[in-house]
Design goal:
CATH architecture of chain B: Up-down Bundle
Strand order of the largest sheet of chain B: 1-2
Structural class of chain B: mainly alpha
Oligomer: heterotrimer
Strand content of chain A: under 5%
Helix content of chain A: 40-55%
CATH superfamily of chain B: Formate dehydrogenase/DMSO reductase domain
Helix content of chain B: over 70%
Structural class of chain A: mainly alpha
Distance between the termini of chain B: 76 Å
CATH topology of chain B: Formate dehydrogenase/DMSO reductase fold
Largest sheet of chain B: 2 strands, antiparallel
Order of helices and strands of chain B: EHHHHHHHHHHHHHEH
Radius of gyration of chain B: 22 Å
Shape of chain A: elongated
Number of strands of chain A: 0
Shape of chain B: globular
Order of helices and strands of chain A: HHHHHHHHHH
Number of helices of chain A: 10
Chains: A mainly alpha, B mainly alpha, C alpha+beta
Strand content of chain B: under 5%
CATH class of chain B: Mainly Alpha
Largest sheet of chain A: none
Chain lengths: 151, 388, 246
């Protein structure tokens, strides 16, 4: 037995090198891995907080209605009742937080056309026109009031 | 509004390829490692004595390529500095998470240990006879043991045998898991097949054996030493058998797809005939498989002179190495050229000087040979092995 | 210098003990996430899309892009227009993801419709399955998210997603995708796309809320998920989805 140990003793050396490496690895792993990793699943719980901390660009129409309820009631009576404010007016969280920030209304022609230009793929019941033939070059808002557009 | 390079419809995020030339290179390199090691194990475990002259060469080849293997992956990652996370928090449901551990296992417990055991006598001898910096290196490599007694060498031999036996499934795992990485993706019908790990493995063995054959011929030519034809003939024979299995598996996949002709078939078939015509039909099938098979079959069926056989073997191996690279290309790139809607195709433009470009790929392919030369200088494979 | 075998064993043993202690400490000392009004366990998010209501205006694509600073040329959501003719492959287009809507289709002798697409927030997500490090995951409230401080950018998840909803963000070099506006829905708001959809073709739903209209909707309407054979347990349900949709 002792004889065998003497002849194979050199094998201890690579084994020890490996063991030392594994030990170092375990130490590093213990030090570097986030402590609560795995709490909800195989991920860092801090990731949830990170995603949630993203700032808002759209305020949501409940915010708009708090100040602008005249436009909101005009809209409620008409065909655009279910079109959110920011769908046309763009992201307004900045304005909701600081009303001195004045938003700019996008170009009316483009805006209306995106929804109401005639397209065979759109549901047939949806109001759509070939704008080139419809208004003879006039702006949409010349005839239609955007918050209550039906004529 | 047509997108350049796109025919038909692709989901908007699919237009750009995610896995590039470097990801083609990675399975190619690990394939060479696995193949070279299997050739080495032919002698050690299966007692095919004829290939003995290439035993040490095959081990060094495997090591040279294994050291380079992580590099294309690191260059591909968006955050290579975070790659250590695979060791810290490996997600056990991901085949890719296995990479780090399988790689380290294979590098240390299999390859480095086997090389150390094989070369120990030479290392100890060189630690005594060399001077200066080389002496320090060799002394470090002895790991402090100068024991060269005959009994210890017998134990080295036994342990080396065991390591090789463990090494064979380890080599299979090292490359087979890459096949599983592709084969387990149900979202991609070009990749998703249970045959993928097996096809990868056999094509790896083919490329590895061909690589060792080439390196042996080139090394002997450079050293102006006569080539052991019995060794070469035996390697070529095993190459032929392995190639037959590989070819059968790939044909099986093709025939199966064509016969079942599921929804993806029309789209994939079109892709192979157009965007992959050169790389798949010409490079992989004709030049890379049928031609080498014909050459190797001819040497098995008819008698040729030694010189002529050498030419045929070298030609077959060159074609094989190109063909297996083409196979990796067709799997990785091909799998991203068609839309998962089966309604369109995109194109891949290989960049030149970027991080994942052609220049980098060439450098990564040259590097293993540089390392190989260093290893051959450090641990010469040519000394006759003595059992005392 | 000769270290005795015993000496080596002693050193090795000490190192092992140190490593085990370290690993144990890691398990004991965890960090607590701060509690707030939003309880993840009370929600299970998804979305309903009514194909017959979508007008292809692209508002959702623009809104998402602005809300989430989506980089140009990449899409967390997009709209496709299908033209389906008998015995032919459908013709599908999505010009710039429908960021500017669609050029008008005049041909009205065939079936044509719009299909908004986004991450299907799969409960049995193949993308989460393949992430090597745990950088993408299903949150306890059913939203598939990416930890951009942990992601390696290996893009394995991009390959594994059957729906093409993931991409590599060119600035962070990490994978990005629709988060179902997680930062909004956890504050009681709806997603940017649903907020801005003029026809309510897209609606956020909470399956765990017994008052949510989704329950009655699913009972009364015929719905489908995309690629059901992938068995991803997708949570985006489409009403009136045509069989030609891929």
């Amino acid at each position: 037995m002792r004889r065998w140990f003497h002849d194979s003793g050199h094998l201890i050396r690579p084994a020890l090198v490996l063991l030392a490496a594994v030990a170092v690895f375990l130490l590093v792993r213990a030090a570097v891995t986030p402590k609560d990793f795995g709490k909800y699943g195989h991920y860092r719980p801090a990731a949830l907080t990170l995603v949630r901390s993203h700032p808002l660009s759209y305020a949501g129409q409940e915010q708009c209605v708090m100040c602008h309820d005249d436009q909101a009631s005009a809209r409620k009576a008409g065909k655009h009742a279910h079109v959110a404010c920011e769908a046309c007016h763009g992201p307004l969280a900045a304005h909701a937080n600081d009303p001195s920030i004045q938003p700019k209304l996008p170009d009316v022609a483009d805006l209306c056309r995106r929804c109401h230009e005639k397209d065979a793929a759109k549901p047939s019941g949806f109001p759509q026109v070939v704008t080139a033939e419809h208004s003879g070059g006039a702006k949409c808002t010349d005839c239609h009031q955007p918050h209550n557009p039906h004529l | 509004m047509a997108i350049p390079g796109v025919d038909g419809f692709m989901y908007p995020n699919e237009v750009e390829l995610q896995w590039s030339l470097l990801i083609v290179l990675y399975p190619y390199i690990t394939g060479l490692v696995a193949g070279a090691f299997i050739l080495a194990s032919l002698e050690r475990v299966f007692k095919v004595e004829a290939v003995r002259p290439t035993y040490r060469l095959a081990l060094l080849t495997a090591l040279a390529f294994l050291l380079v293997a992580p590099l294309p992956l690191q260059l591909h990652l968006g955050h290579p500095e975070r790659s250590f996370e695979m060791y810290l928090t490996p997600h056990t449901s991901s085949a890719m998470a296995m990479f780090g551990f399988v790689y380290l296992w294979y590098l240390t417990v299999v390859l480095l240990l086997e090389i150390w055991l094989e070369y120990r006598a030479d290392i100890v001898r060189l630690s005594r006879s060399s001077k200066g910096f080389a002496r320090i290196v060799y002394r470090a490599l002895t790991l402090g043991s100068q024991n060269l007694s005959p009994a210890s060498r017998i134990i080295d031999d036994k342990v080396g045998y065991t390591v090789t036996v463990i090494g064979i499934p380890s080599a299979f795992l090292l490359h087979g898991y890459v096949g599983f990485i592709f084969g387990s993706i149900k979202a991609n019908p070009w990749w998703s097949t249970p045959l993928m790990p097996i096809v990868f493995l056999f094509s790896a063995m083919v490329s590895g054996i061909a690589a060792v054959l080439m390196l042996y011929v080139v090394s002997m030519k450079l050293r102006k030493t006569p080539i052991d034809m019995r060794c070469l003939d035996t390697i070529a024979k095993y190459l032929f058998y392995t190639f037959l299995i590989d070819f059968t598996l790939e044909m099986l996949d093709l025939i199966h797809r064509t016969y079942e002709a599921d929804e993806s078939f029309r789209s994939l078939d079109f892709m192979v005939h157009t965007r992959l015509l050169f790389s798949h039909v010409i490079l992989q099938i004709f030049l890379g498989t049928l031609l080498p098979l014909a050459l190797l079959a001819a040497t098995q069926l008819w008698r040729f002179t030694e010189a002529r056989r050498r030419v045929m073997y070298v030609t077959a191996c060159c074609c094989t190495l190109v063909g297996i690279f083409a196979m990796r290309w067709n799997v990785v790139i091909g799998g991203q050229l068609f839309s998962k809607s089966f309604l369109g195709y995109t194109s891949y433009k290989v960049q030149f000087a970027e991080r994942e470009g052609l220049l980098m790929a060439i450098a990564l392919m040259i590097l293993p040979f540089v390392i190989f030369v260093v290893l051959v200088k450090l641990l010469p494979p040519w000394t006759d092995r003595k059992t005392t | 210098m000769d270290i005795s075998r015993r000496g080596l064993f002693q050193i090795g043993g000490k190192l092992l003990v140190l490593a085990s202690v370290g690993a144990t400490l890691e398990q004991i000392v965890g960090a607590e996430t701060p509690s707030d009004a939003y309880k993840m366990a009370e929600h299970w998010w998804g979305m309903l899309i009514d194909i017959d209501k979508c007008i292809g205006c692209g508002n959702c694509v623009r809104a998402c892009s602005k809300e989430n600073q989506v980089p140009n040329g990449y899409f967390r959501t997009w709209v496709e227009r299908y033209q389906v003719e008998e015995n032919k492959q459908p013709v599908v287009e999505s010009p710039n993801g429908a960021m500017d809507g669609f050029p008008p289709l005049t041909r009205d002798d065939i079936k044509a419709f719009f299909v908004p697409k986004l991450c299907n927030q799969c409960a049995d997500s193949p993308c989460v399955q393949v992430c090597p490090v745990g950088a993408t995951f299903v949150s306890p409230d059913g939203v598939v998210l990416v930890d951009k401080e942990y992601c390696l950018g290996c893009r394995y998840c991009v390959q594994a997603c059957p729906y093409g909803c993931r991409y590599l963000h060119p600035e962070t070099d990490t994978v990005d995708k629709c988060t179902l506006c997680y930062h909004r829905i956890t504050q009681g708001l709806t997603t940017a796309c649903c907020e801005n959809c003029p026809t309510q073709a897209r609606q956020l739903v909470d399956f765990k809320n017994p008052q949510d209209p989704v329950h009655e909707f699913l009972r009364k309407n015929k719905v489908e998920v995309l690629k059901p054979y992938m068995a991803t347990q997708a949570k985006v349900y489409y009403k009136d989805l045509d069989g030609s949709v891929r």
